[in-house]
Each structure stands twice: as C-alpha cells, then as structure tokens.
Design goal:
It is a single chain. The protein has one domain. It is built from two helices and three strands; from the N terminus they run αβββα. Strands 1-2-3 form a three-stranded antiparallel sheet, covered by helices on one side. Strand 1 and strand 2 form a beta hairpin. The radius of gyration is 12 Å and the shape is elongated.
Length: 60
Amino acid sequence: MPNALLMKQIKIIVEKHSDGYIAYPLGIKGAIVGQGDTYEEALTDVKSAIRCYIEIFGKN
C-alpha cells in the first residue's frame, strides 16, 4: 500500500523566536519538536521527527 494512503493530515505550528524557529504537530501524543534557523528548516525537521515517531510507535 503506498505511503500516501497511510498519511493523514497533521496540523503543524511553527513559531518564530529570537534565536530561530520551532515547530510542533497538533494531535500527536509525545514530545515531537523541530527547530531551525528558518521557517523551512523547522518545518522539515518536525516532518522528519513525525515520520520517525510513526515508524517507531505507529499511528495514533
């Protein structure tokens, strides 16, 4: 089964802070956070963390 069929939409919050950006998903239990110097880096980082989380713990 293709991965696209297994994916559900997840809302991600990206916040700008004085030292960069942080990003985190809504609706996933556990501490999943991405960070980066830019919006795009933080978003990419959190997406990677979400994929890892799902591989290890499965979908909620």
